[in-house]
Amino acid sequence: MKRTMTLALGFALLTGAAQAGSAPAARQEGLLDINGAQIHYVSQGAGTPLLLLHGYPLSGELFARNRDALAGAGYRVITIDHRGYGRSTAPANNPGSLETYASDALGVLDKLGVPKAVIGGMSMGGPITFEMYRRAPERFLGMILIATLANPAGIVEQHIWKGMAQKASTFGPQSLAPELLKDMLTGDTRTHRMNDAKILTAIVSQASVAGDVAGASTLATRPDSVPMLRTIRVPTLIVGGVEDTVYPPEFSLKMHQNIPGSQLVMIPGAAHAVNFERAEAFNAAVIAWGRRHGLR
């Protein structure tokens, strides 16, 4: 019988695995000229390429707590800032779209000489990952879907993203942080680990207004990727937070049921920013899954 859910309660046993390995290889970072934009990237480690795509309205620094452990476990961890976010910039005539974000990510792999990679996307990074797979499935060694979904945005969600775009335009990118942090982090974390909220607030504040508007439009108009799920033929890990209120566990379960041979890990005590809020459990899940499939 197909396994439908793996709770992360047992990942305390795997903490050693997440911390094992030699010290990560030297970190490289810089700006790459991709499709008329300047895309900031960080590359750490020297093993199996692992490209991680951040969600809205964040940056590659969302994965700062994942790089060391995953690089130490045998991955070359590559993170990028989508155009308009973090340290990346974009021309005024192309601030961002689903197609452009996907093309940028593939372009970064090309510039770094990476023909194939495990590609993972968090939240908005999920639809971008699906778009990359539609275009170039041969570039995938595996897929990681983090706190995301394959469904198109419903009417209510569409209006939420339009509201985010309007607020960023009126009051600036930093104004989105209070709207988002209540869903990014659990109440327990916001109460007892207040520095986590400060870190995410700083990341949100780095975005440009044009980037925030383009990303909100991308989320509001994303296509229905549910029909393509059964066509995915690479090892796939789905990770969600049990307390995620943006894209609740039901969406992760639906993807798991439709992607052949996929593995689902739901992490307790985590909301939407699961890889950041419960980094040790997330890292352990990725490492165990990668070893199971011989990806490192």
Automatic annotation (TrEMBL):
Residue ranges of coiled coil: none
Keyword Cell cycle applies: no
Domain AB hydrolase-1 stretches: 49-278
Alphabetical UniProt keywords: Hydrolase, Plasmid, Signal
Signal sequence residues: 1-20
Single GO MF annotation: hydrolase activity
InterPro entries named among the record's database cross-references: AB_hydrolase, AB_hydrolase_1, AB_hydrolase_fold, Epox_hydrolase-like
PANTHER family: HYDROLASE, ALPHA/BETA FOLD FAMILY PROTEIN (PTHR43433), NON-HEME CHLOROPEROXIDASE-RELATED (PTHR43433:SF4)
Protein name from the UniProt record: Alpha/beta hydrolase
Protein species of origin: Deinococcus ficus
Lineage: Bacteria, Thermotogati, Deinococcota, Deinococci, Deinococcales
